Amino acid sequence: MMAENTADQSDSVLLDDPTTADLRAKVTEAWREFAGALGALLPTLPDGAHVDITLDPTASGTGTAVYSVSMRVLADGVVEALAVGNAGLPEGYRMNRSSVADLVALGWSPPGVLPDSGDSFGLRSNTAAAKQVGAIVSRTLRDVYGAPHPAFLVYLVHDGADEPIETAPLGTARHEPSISGELSLDDLDEDGVLSEALASAADEVIPLEERVRTVVATMSKTTVDQLQVDNDGDIGIRAGSAMVFVRVRDNPPLVDVFSPILTEVEPTEQLYMKLSELTNRMPIGRLYCAQDTVWASIPVFGRNFQATHLMLAVQVMTGLADELDDRLHGEFGGKRFFGEGDKPVPPKGTKEGDDHRTGMYL
User: Fold this and answer.
1) pLDDT tens column, 244-297
2) 3-state SS class at 52
3) How far is C-alpha 210 from the chain's CA centre?
């Protein structure tokens, strides 16, 4: 199962207390809280409401694979859930026979068995058994899809008209609409051009990728045609010595705003602890280390897309990446994206009590 490949290397990122001896117990408790919160939420939702939960693909290191579970509440307290199957996953990230068997053992029906389930695994229950549904979804995300901790999940609760529903938190999972903060279009553009462009895009039914490019181009004071787009379709935004990328995913609709803060860095326990400390202080997003690269990531849901959410994510990420790559490079070595002469050898003698402030972004 995927969990065996990712849990061990990711657990240390989540260490929020350097003196904690039983980290696995803390992770288990976080999953228990998530399952309980989800089980408590489902019976309170109106008919037609949806709960979409996605393993953040950038933070989890799953590349182009998007592992997700979607639940909806029907009449008479019926709950139906869909979990992504192999047909929705790229090669290299598809589940093996053991993982498929684990899904079935948890109670999921194979793709196509539940009416209208299509290529997804299906589950049908009711709000009276919401506690069990929460446990099944939690086990699916952790044990089958390989989510190392609920903090790597983003979720959205909305009604049948795709309008967001405010709910109590699902443990440490991230509620994507909560990142909008106090940012407004007028705050970001004093001459009104940004507001006009984004309002026009929001009023039209156009693909998410085009809407995202319109937002980024307007923020960059350029045109869509002049954006820096690589072969993968990622939009590149230079931020000092750092590079920020904006990637649009289709299934489910998701926008990744991410940055390779450092490459060729040695993944030590001290580094994992620092990234955990900084993540806990970030207003949105997270930091993590995958192999020899430190990443920063802020996911933005594409469903019911809000331009202000993406603008806030880009604003925070560009400032954060440019500041953090310098600070972390000075403490742990590695190479910055535009850091000429950087060396991958971590410096010696870093002390636990060193100043870890990272300015206005944390």
Assistant:
1) 999 998 777 889 999 999 999 988 889 988 998 888 877 677 888 887 899 998
2) strand
3) 21
Q: Residue 294: what pLDDT?
A: 92
Fold match flag (29-175 vs 208-332): yes
- Residue 111: asked if its preceding bond is cis (omega within 30°), the reply is no
The identity of residue 177, as a single letter, is P
Is the pLDDT score of 189 beyond 50? no
What's the DSSP call for residue 346? Answer: P
Q: Which residue has the tokens 């803390």?
A: 26
Three-state secondary-structure class, residue 164: strand
The predicted structure's pLDDT at residue 49: 94
| pLDDT band at 26; cut points 50, 70, 90 | confident
Q: What is the percent of the chain where pLDDT is above 70?
A: 77
How far is Cα 5 from Cα 186, in angstroms, rounded to an integer? 46
- Are 51 and 70 within 8 A, CB to CB? yes
pLDDT tens-place string over residues 289-308: 887 899 998 888 887 777 77
Which among 9, 15, 60, 56 is positioned nearest to 277, based on CA atoms? 15
Cβ atoms 315, 360 nearer than 8 A = no
- The CATH number of domain 208-332 is 3.30.565.10: no
| Strand partners for 51 | 71, 157
CATH of domain 29-175: 3.30.1460
Burial class of 340 by CB neighbour count within 10 A (0 to 12, 13 to 18, 19+):
exposed
What integer is the mean pLDDT of 104-116? 94
Instruction: Return the SS3 of 54.
Output: strand
265, with CB counted inside 10 A (0-12, 13-18, 19+), is buried
Domain boundaries, the chain: 29-175, 208-332
The two structure tokens encoding residue 16: 């929020």
Q: Contact 14/142 with Cβ under 8 angstroms?
A: no
Q: Spell 168-178 as b/e; 16+ CB within 10 A means b.
A: eebbbbbbbbe
Record the pTM: 0.53
CA 341 from centroid of its chain's CA atoms? 32
Nearest in space to 171 (alpha carbons), one of 189, 190, 188, 149:
149
